[in-house]
Write a structure and sequence with these properties.
- By secondary structure, the chain is an alpha+beta fold.
- The chain has two domains: 86 residues, OB fold (Dihydrolipoamide Acetyltransferase, E2P) (Beta Barrel), CATH 2.40.50; 39 residues, no CATH class.
- Helices cover 21% and strands 28% of the residues.
- The chain has two helices and seven strands; from the N terminus they run H-E-E-E-E-E-H-E-E.
- The strands form two sheets. A five-stranded mixed β-barrel has the order 1-2-3-5-4. A two-stranded antiparallel ribbon has the order 6-7.
- The chain is flat.
Length: 159
Amino acid sequence: MMDKENRMKKSIAFLAMLLFFVLMMTGCENMNKNSDGIEAVYLGVENYGAGETNKDNKDDFSYRFEINGKEQVFKVDNGVRDEEGNYDYAIQNILKQGYAYIITVEEGKVTYASEKEAEAETFTPVVQGRPGEKTLANFLKTALAPVGTTLYIYGGGWD
């Protein structure tokens, strides 16, 4: 009987440790009430286009963000009211759908957002010639090198 109880205690302790490990690995930072500097992609207004989502209740909109591959919904701070009682919507006015932002969340509400700088991609052509070198091989290499980043289509190109 005592052996059965010991096995049960060990099993419970193992499951508790396993649960703790899983919570640590899945990023339980979202369980905190305040989070500074979260990288998020803005996905848009929740239920956009639905009848209940209109300008009459814009102060209560919920906003969708993708954080660590998971969609999360937050309210966004409406900003400062003017003398007529209208908000300035400072954060909402900078949000662009599909762009990455660094956001601060306090008690389930986004209180700060700044657009994350995009990393520039540099293009290196496969075939490169040397400017000024007067050889047939160099002439052919420079002739094969692309001039810009034009999208070539049948019958012309767009830049």
